[in-house]
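haha ok so turns out i had the wrong file open the whole time. this is the CORRECT one, sorry everyone. sequence first:
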Amino acid sequence: MADGLIIDDNRQTADALQQMLALLDLPAKVAYGSSPAMSMLASFVPRFICLDINMPGVDGTEVLAYIRREPRLMKVPVVVITSDDQPETRQHVMRGGAQAMVVKPVTIDMLEGAFKKAGIIK
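then structure:
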C-alpha cells in the first residue's frame, strides 16, 4: 500500500502529524513545504495527502488546485490541516477539492475523524 504525503513547512507540525498517522497505521512521507512537495508529486502518487494551507511561496490552495488538475493525482484524497479557522477558508478548500479540514492544534482523534470523513479509513 502506498504511503501518504504530509505537506507542511513547519517541521515540528509535519513530524508530529507523521507520528500520529503512524499510530493510525497510515504511513506517510513528509515534504517540508510546497516546493519539495511538488518535486515529490512529480514521481509519486500518494494514498492520501495532508496539506497545510499557510505556507510561504506557493500556498496550500495553489498546491490543492495543482493536485485537482493533475490526472495522476486528481482522485487522491486531501485532508487540509490549517490554523486558519475562518468559515471562508473551510468553504474555499472544500470547493477546491479537499475531502476534510482539521484546525490546528491537531489531536489524533481529530485526524481519525477527518480520515474517516475522507474515506481513507473505515
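Residues 80 and 101 are 5 Å apart (CA to CA).
again sry for the mixup
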